[in-house]
Amino acid sequence: MADWGPVFISLVLFILLSPGLLFQIPGKNRFIEFGNFQTSGVSILIHALIFFALVAILLIAIDLYMTCKESKRIPRFISLYLKNKVERKKLVPKKIYKSIKIKPATKMSDWGPVVISVVLFVLLSPGLLFQLPAHHRIVQFGSMETSGVSILVHSIIFFAILAVFLIAIGVRITTG
């Protein structure tokens, strides 16, 4: 069963943290500017750091996940506290408990979704490498500008590439 949680969390954060849509840190004239549809290399770096922090917190620390059918996965932060079988039987529903063996969480974390989504956030930020569609052309390279339509198009590209890497290929980067 594929875990779509990292894909959708990263997509929502990509849209919300695209420099110039809601806010830009640092702005051209002030420290923070709202809705100016401009971008810069420094603001993409700052927004990428914020993106990395939020994705790491949501996917690694809190262990958010989303599946299409009934999930048989127990979140890591719950399984840490389930030390013996008596505690497991009390907290885990019978249907799930009988179908899987619950192991206490190990220290290994899957950093693949975090790393891939941060790299794609930087590469696909509208205006840095390219802007599709641009204001006066179809594609404009290095314009450091953005628009609502280009953020939408870049979000669709971001979603497609991230889904291919995380769901179809199943890239995993684990730490031990």
Can you give a write-up of this model?
The chain is 48% helix and 5% strand. With 176 residues, it is mainly alpha-helical. It has one domain (5-68, 108-169). The strands form two sheets. A two-stranded antiparallel sheet has the order 1-2. Helix 1 packs parallel to helix 6 (112-123). It is globular, with a radius of gyration of 20 Å.
Provide a concise account of the structure shown.
The chain has 176 residues and is mainly α. It has helices spanning 5-16, 41-61, 76-79, 85-91, 94-99, 112-123, 148-169; strands at 23-24, 33-34, 130-131, 140-141. The radius of gyration is 20 Å and the shape is globular.
Beta-strand content bin: under 5%
Number of domains: 1
- Regarding quaternary structure, how should these chains be classified? single chain
What's the β-strand tally? 4
Distance between the termini: 24 Å
Strand arrangement in the largest pleated sheet: 1-2
Give the rounded overall mean pLDDT: 81
Overall geometry: globular
Helix content: 40-55%
Number of H/I helices: 7
Report the major sheet.
2 strands, antiparallel
Question: Secondary-structure element sequence?
Answer: HEEHHHHHEEH
Show unreliable segments.
100-105
How large, in whole angstroms, is the Cα Rg? 20 Å
The helix-and-strand class reads mainly alpha
Keywords: Membrane, Transmembrane, Transmembrane helix
Pfam families: DUF3339
InterPro entries: DUF3339
Transmembrane segments: 7-25, 45-66, 111-131, 151-171
